[in-house]
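Q: Could you fold this chain for me?
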Amino acid sequence: MIEFLKAKFERNNSGFSMSIEIFKIAKNTQLRKICIKFY
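A: Sure. Below is the predicted structure, expressed as structure tokens.
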């Protein structure tokens, strides 16, 4: 799952819309903490 998200990050130039998409996917707080580290 994490590798899948990283691959999507690398492919997507628009970080802001990517973060919104990930926050919709990542309902659990642990994944949200990982996402916050990117921004």
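A (continued): The radius of gyration is 9 Å.
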